[in-house]
Amino acid sequence: MKIENRLLPAVLVVEDETLIRMDVVDIIEDAGFTAYEAGSADAAIELMERHDNIKILFTDIEMPGSMDGLKLAAYVRDRWPPVAILIVSGAVGMRESALPQGSSFVSKPYVTSHITETLHEIATQLK
Question: Domain residues of the chain, as ranges?
Fold first, then answer.
């Protein structure tokens, strides 16, 4: 079930690999969402503080810097509890107990349609 594009929440994409991040931003924008992008957890937190329309965090796990994607997700869950979290990684066998409560996990490589469907489902739940 899709919602009208003007009602879709903004998504923050956090990925340290520039080309992957650009591709994900294109996928998200093509699906009708507004996308912000960050190459690190620190940059992501700055964007979260500046843009209150960000309602979905899309983050990779493995990133350089002060925290990885799991720590970023936990930080966002604590500081901005209503924000939905979608964690992606090439790591196999990710335990649900390792994820912040209420987050979703998608393994890489992922299919574009799966990402867009998942984001639309999340957006519907946020309504």
Answer: 5-126
